[in-house]
Amino acid sequence: MQRSQRPSPVDRLLRLITDVRVGERGTVLLLALNIFLILTAYYFIKPVREALILDSGGAEVKSYSAAGQALLLLGLVPLYGALAGRLPRRKLINVVTAFFAACLVVFFMAGQAAGSTLVLAIIFFLWVGIFNVMVVAQFWSFANDIYTRDEGERLFPIVAFGASSGAVLGSWVSGNIITVFGVFLPLVLAAGILVLSLLITTLVDARERRHKEVGVPDVLTTAAMPAASGAIRLEDIRKALEEYDAREAQRSEEAEEEAEEKAVEPRVRDGLAADITQTLGIAGRGEGPFRMVLRCRYLLFIALLILLLNWVNTTGEYILGSVVQDTAAEAVAAGTAGGLTVGEYIGAFYSKFFAIVNVFGLFIQLFLVSRIIKYVGVQVSLIVLPLIALGGYALLALYPLLSFVRWAKTAENATDYSLQNTVRNVIFLPCTREQKYKAKQAIDSFFWRAGDVFSAVVVFIGTTYLAMQASGFAIFNIGLVVVWLLLAVVIGREYKQLVASGRPPCA
């Protein structure tokens, strides 16, 4: 099917955000809608998580429970890697997402039956941490699989705009639902939204295979290959097939009889498919996700960056959470909470806080992200968030006031959810399919949650033995941000070298 060569009104509108070329709008808008639905569902869930854990256990229990997420991921990440090594990408996404949607229905029924209990709060907190990192990382692996490096750098800002929009809508709507219908109703609504996102995934997968895999032997299509298949990329497969077709065109010109050409061609092309499958490892090397990260310098540096990013962010969330918990208790005791319980007060506060953060993030995503990446490049984009965090925690170290805590976290989180979210997915574009589905899942889930573990250790030591206040935690974060900034510089330099060489990392 031939695509129109003239830009449509939608193309021209999207070009206000980034460089969208003719024929690209359909898939990029569907991907944006897909992550919009996923993030809407997550922000239906997130205030429920905060309400349950802070009401039942407090900020310290919240921080300590986060450590359990990393321990669970030690087993879940290899399991996901095994599934990715066996299932094609569409089936993989459908199976994993449907499982999480079913879990939401179970939590809704448990909450309706037993109410808010500490056991339910801890189990749900652990589950949300797993859901958030695995489902979102899986989506971005899918997007990385679809786009080449050039396409991803141009189009990821639009896809990430869908994420920012979903976060804004989800946080705003969930707050209204909680105050009117109670804490648990958003869960069953989120399950329905996740099911809808699967329909979009199926549509995108079919659309891209129809457009990009024409003439590719069935054994080499993404419908047949496991998601984490081999050490080569789809563009490498297409290049090999194009080279084959060029050779066959030359051979056919020199052939003496047309019948002989037609008899030989299918056998040779099937042989090429087998050669790619066996020689280049299209069936997958079976390498574990963690070993893949640890043996590759580029992936290991990304993993350490993600760990430090979340370590800093989670420690900052502890500072904010402890203040919110005290404020909610005081408001309920004083009768100024508008008839809300402590849990409902906290849930309503966080929904408003998330809404403000996400509105700022949406603005940054819409008007700044693509321009920053285009004009200053991925290298500079990687250091923007650590510089903002460095300034924010330096301010909190001097002036640990509630208003400063709230707005420092707003600036940090808004940049994290927009520019940083986009660029940390862009840096996986040079990777192989196997690295995108296995190593990326390990990095975006385990190493992300490992930051929570280190933060929990810091909170425990700081509150139990050192009597640290907000300014003390801010000073500690400053030291972490300096290391984070140095890693960002190194990764940016290696990304530039990979792009120039045209080879995947650790090839």
Describe the structure.
- The structure is a single chain.
- The chain starts with 8 loop residues before the first helix and ends in a 6-residue tail after the last helix.
- It is built from 15 helices and no strands.
- The chain has two domains: 17-216 and 284-501, Growth Hormone, Chain: A; 233-279.
- The longest helix has 57 residues, at 342-398.
- The protein has 507 residues and is an all-alpha fold.
Summarize, please.
With 507 residues, this protein is mostly helical. The protein is built from 15 helices and no strands.
Number of strands: 0
The helix content is over 70%
CATH class of the largest domain: Mainly Alpha
Structural class: mainly alpha
Succession of helices and strands: HHHHHHHHHHHHHHH
CATH homologous superfamily caption of the largest domain = MFS general substrate transporter like domains
List descriptors.
2 domains, mainly alpha, 82% helix, single chain, 507 residues, Growth Hormone, Chain: A
What are the SSEs and their pairings?
Blueprint: H1 9-14, H2 25-56, H3 58-84, H4 89-114, H5 118-146, H6 149-181, H7 185-212, H8 234-254, H9 258-279, H10 289-295, H11 297-334, H12 342-398, H13 402-426, H14 433-464, H15 470-501
Helix pairs in contact: 2-3, 2-5, 2-6, 2-7, 2-12, 3-5, 3-11, 3-14, 4-5, 4-7, 5-14, 6-12, 6-13, 8-9, 10-11, 10-14, 11-12, 11-13, 11-14, 11-15, 12-13, 12-15
